[in-house]
Amino acid sequence: MRETPIILCVDDEKIILECLKIQIQNHFKGECQIELAESGEEGLEIIDELRNEGNVRPHLIISDQIMPGMRGDQFLTEVHSKYPDIVKVMLTGMAQDEDIERAFEQADLRKVMHKPWSSEELLNTIEESLSYSQSENFNGSSLSRMTA
Fold it and tell me: What are the counts of helices (DSSP H) followed by strands (DSSP E) for the chain?
């Protein structure tokens, strides 16, 4: 039996988080757990709480790049250093090319999507990422980049 997938969405804009949550909930009909964080620091706290409380981890992180404090590439790189088996996607409106490339290289970023996003692209990316994350072949090795 497969465990319930956990998706962590990280963005400093509450409206973005709520939109993501609604789209994911409507599509997956309660078949996944959605966690929301308004900063990279809060995202790290949520991951640690999940590990401590139930020895689980998010299967997928969708993170913004431009946030106060810890930027998305920094957050994803830190997550990758502790938990390389988490699939990471960046959803951004204003990331610089060098930030994106750094996230691909240092955080094993799976994909970049740009705001405003297409609901179809978002949901397809989530389905593919969760499928990969839960596959028996997944061992935290370098992921191939997904293309739009």
Answer: 5, 5
pLDDT tens digit sequence for 9-24: 999 999 999 999 999 9
**In contact, 83 and 124? CB cutoff 8 Å:** no
Structural domain for 96, as ranges: 6-133
Give this prediction's pTM: 0.90
Structural domain count of the chain: 1
What are the residues facing 10 on neighbouring strands?
37, 63
138 is a domain residue:
no
Structure-block tokens of residue 136: 């028996």
* CA distances (Å), origin 49, targets 44, 46, 66: 9, 5, 24
Which residue carries 């990471």 as its tokens? 88
Query: Residues 86, 60: contact at Cβ < 8 Å?
Result: yes
Q: Which residues pair with 88 in a beta bridge?
A: 61
Full 3-state SS string of 75-135: HHHHHHHHCCCCEEEEEECCCCHHHHHHHHHHHCCCEEEECCCCHHHHHHHHHHHHHHHCC
